[in-house]
């Protein structure tokens, strides 16, 4: 009798564990698209600001491009381009090197290799020079940066997603970077803020007809 109760108890534990796993899988947040393969394009709606070297670089223009394969995905990787950037009061170029961003539907982002190229050997770089003094900041590969907030919306009757980036000390995460040059201030916590940073739109492949995308 005792042996049967033990077997029953173990079976009950196994059932509960499997149920918990199934519930977790069912509730996992994912990126969704109406198409099997989707080109993702995004443009900024507010300035993108990165705090580093006791200063801030602010970019008035940012664009992102990537591809989602399958109607659902837990993450998507996108390349980025920044323009209209000011650092230490002067215009600077942001060189993405061999880096891209992987956005996770769960609300984190990673700095990763752009394809087979190495982000570690060619990181994201920006440099300001003022009166012969310079400050160079480099951002290499890293994971688990929080937080990224996704808001579903529509434009012209087609579903799209607005992305809000708040990678800050308040959220318990900062960006690792290196700095070099006499213009740089003290090394501070790297933070990236861009409220309503970009609106992502989907385009079905082949042909790139507008297609609905959302996060849930």
Describe the secondary-structure layout.
Blueprint: H1 2-27, E1 31-33, E2 37-44, E3 48-52, E4 55-69, E5 72-73, E6 75-87, E7 90-92, E8 94-95, E9 99-104, E10 108-113, E11 124-130, E12 133-139, E13 142-146, E14 148-155, E15 158-167, E16 178-180, E17 191-204, E18 209-211, E19 213-215
Antiparallel strand pairs: 1-5, 1-19, 2-4, 2-17, 3-4, 3-17, 4-6, 6-7, 6-9, 8-11, 9-10, 10-13, 11-12, 12-16, 14-15, 15-17, 17-18
Form type: elongated
The helix count comes to 1
Number of domains: 1
Largest sheet entry = 12 strands, antiparallel
Percent helix range: 10-25%
Order of helices and strands: HEEEEEEEEEEEEEEEEEEE
Taking pLDDT < 50 over at least 5 consecutive residues as the criterion, the unreliable ranges are: 1-26
**SS-derived structural category:** mainly beta
Strand content: over 45%
Mean pLDDT over all positions = 88
Task: Give the radius of gyration.
Answer: 22 Å
| Amino- and carboxy-terminal Cα gap | 47 Å
Q: Please report the total strand number as a whole number.
A: 19
């Amino acid at each position: 009798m005792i042996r049967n109760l033990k077997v029953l108890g173990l079976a009950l534990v196994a059932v509960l564990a499997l149920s918990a796993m199934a519930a977790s899988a069912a509730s996992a947040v994912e990126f969704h698209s109406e198409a099997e393969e989707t080109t993702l394009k995004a443009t900024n709606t507010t300035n993108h600001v990165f705090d580093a070297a006791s200063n801030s670089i602010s970019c008035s223009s940012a664009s992102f491009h990537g591809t989602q394969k399958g109607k659902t995905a837990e993450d998507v990787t996108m390349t980025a381009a920044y323009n209209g950037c000011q650092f230490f009061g002067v215009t600077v170029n942001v060189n993405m090197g061999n880096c891209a961003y992987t956005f996770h539907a769960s609300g984190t982002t990673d700095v990763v290799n752009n394809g087979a190229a190495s982000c570690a050997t060619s990181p994201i770089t920006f440099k300001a020079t003022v009166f012969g003094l310079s400050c160079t900041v480099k951002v290499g590969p890293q994971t688990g940066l929080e937080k990224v907030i996704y808001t579903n919306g529509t434009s012209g009757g087609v579903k799209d997603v607005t992305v809000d980036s708040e990678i800050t000390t308040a959220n318990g995460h900062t960006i690792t970077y290196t700095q070099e040059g006499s213009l740089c201030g003290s090394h501070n916590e790297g933070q990236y803020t861009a409220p309503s940073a970009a609106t992502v739109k989907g385009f079905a492949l082949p042909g790139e007809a507008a297609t609905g995308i959302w996060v849930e």
